Amino acid sequence: MSFDLTQQPNAQDAPRALSEPIQADGRRQRSVDSRTRIVQALLDLVGEGEISPSAEQVALRAQVGLRSVFRHFKDMDSLYSEMSQVIEAEIVKTFYRPHAGETVADRLTDLISRRAGLFERIAPFRRASTTLAHRSSFLGSEQRRMSAGLRKILEDALSPEIMADKVKVEALDLLLSFDSWNRLRRDQNLSPSEAEAVIGAAVARVID
Q: Which among 77, 49, 72 has a CA at the least distance from the CA of 59?
């Protein structure tokens, strides 16, 4: 006897013990697929510049019903938490490896380059988080946690002499922040390479 695995069995012919797990697995996979589409829809909308997408917009982009959105996420804050996890994963991938360079200047040059690339990629999501933080306790706490993490990475690249100078450390933290990058890119209308050059020159003056 041979079995054709591409042929769908007749539900009446399938033993109950076998058909029920298969049906359950199918429902579980559809649920996973729907959740993935919902999260991706939010990421796509924000990435396209929609600062605060509504649940209706997310559902439409994901091609699911509005009820499906809130079946997977109890509220929009829960959905935004998924967006924050994407940003955090990008930070981990970019930063949690040894700094390149033996001197402080070399390490900071490497750090500036990494942050320029990272901030450019996550800019739409960070701007959305900033806009929504006033009504989302989760996003507000995530921003503070992310800022603390970035500061720790900066401090690891500095020498004990610079770490002993509070003014220098605070100045470097400001210069290497997303806020500085965002101002140079949006308000001062600089290109990514120009913004990186400005930050590099400013950092060199601080550590000189």
A: 72
